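#onboarding

Welcome to the new folks! Below is a worked example of what a typical request in this channel looks like: someone posts a single protein sequence, and someone else replies with the predicted structure as tokens. Don't worry about understanding the tokens yet, we'll cover that in week two.

Example request:
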Amino acid sequence: MQPRSLKSKHLRQQHSGFTLIELLIVMAIIGMLAALVGPSVFKHFGGAQRDAAKAQISNLSSALDAYRLGMHKYPRTLEALVKNPGNNKRWNGPYIPKLPKDPWGNDYQYRFPGTHGLEYDLYSFAADGREGGSDDDADVTNWE
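Example response:
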């Protein structure tokens, strides 16, 4: 016969762990929390992409202004910020190391002369990749 303390220790070891019901309850709670928190996290992620696009547009605007100081006019294309267009001796670039993509992986759009009251238009089509849009898909621009 085994001593009482060994027998009770053996019984306690035998019943340690989680049951399937307990695991399912924990998984259901985690799922409910994810359903509540997930949409707000993605909402902030979309806002962060828009903020990043605004910052990049500001940086590109600064590079365009630096180009204008040296060349006395704005360039026809954004590529002129990286590579000398036509081997002009006044070109003092590159004004930026390389042309960035917007946070959605698309090229920034540039129009000179501008059509929104500024000398040039600089914008991103945002998430939908098309001009225009509303709310989360609205273009990110230098004129708004």
